[in-house]
Fold this protein.
Amino acid sequence: QVHKHMHLAWVAADDDLLSTSSSYSLWNTGQGLNRVQHCPKVAKLTHGLLSDTQRAAGAPWVGLSVIHLGDRDVPNALIFIDKYTQIPHILGPIVKFVDNIEELVQNPKLAAYVEAQFEDTRNLKMKVLADYFKHGFDGSGDDGGSCIDGRLTSSWNWTSRIEKKSYHHAFLMSGFVGFDGSFDK
């Protein structure tokens, strides 16, 4: 929902950052010195999007509904925008890898590797996806854990551990260069 309405988030963020009624202060947030400022317009927008998402889910919401804004986790509206623009950097390489596994195994040597390590391409896909969905949203790396921001932190933590995963070599053989690299290769 945030990405679908990113244009509105940008407008709200600009309004919050340029507000003459909401001053800011400098805090050492544990991630360096940051401009901490309340974000009432971004907060109103995101809480509305969260409510819409919860209603559309049609199932009980799992985790907290906390959205950090103007605190040590998300000091200001610009950092909020930056966090959400990182999502394609996380998901893009995962989706590309899973979508292109069949193409990868057209090479007989890579097919032999996948068969020896994972039995088949379906098992490789399931291993990657199950691992991401288990650890990409588990609250690791954040003291709040299950808040929205904590889930983004969990996903980043998952990306930082990919070289320790049994499927890392398959990612590399597919042309994966990293979560901040080009999505073209």
